[in-house]
Amino acid sequence: MTYILVCYSAYLVIIVLLTVWVARTLFRNGKVFLIDIFHGNEELARAVNNLLLVGFYLINKGIY
To answer: Among 19, 31, 15, which residue's Cα sits nearest to residue 55?
Structure first.
């Protein structure tokens, strides 16, 4: 029983850290592409990037 708890806890920690790392990487690097898509409108690109970040976290939270 203890072994299973340790394994699930380790899995949860690894998945959370991996999700945060991927989200930050996509958020940081995606801004350039969004600015290009929205023809230089940085305010709109930032807003859409924030919405995509929240959506990414919500989708990944649903998997847990």
So the answer is: 19
Give the pair of three-digit tokens for residue 3: 């072994």
Instruction: Compute the residue count for the chain.
Output: 64
> What's the distance, CA 40 to chain centroid?
24
Task: With CA atoms as reference, report the closest residue to 49 among 35, 61, 63.
Answer: 35
Predicted TM-score (pTM) of the model is 0.79
Contacts of 35 (CB under 8 A, 6+ apart): 41, 42, 45
- In a 13 Å sphere around the CA of 32, the CA atoms on its Cβ side amount to 4
Q: What is the mean pLDDT of each run of 10 residues along the chain (64 residues)?
A: 92 94 94 93 95 93 71
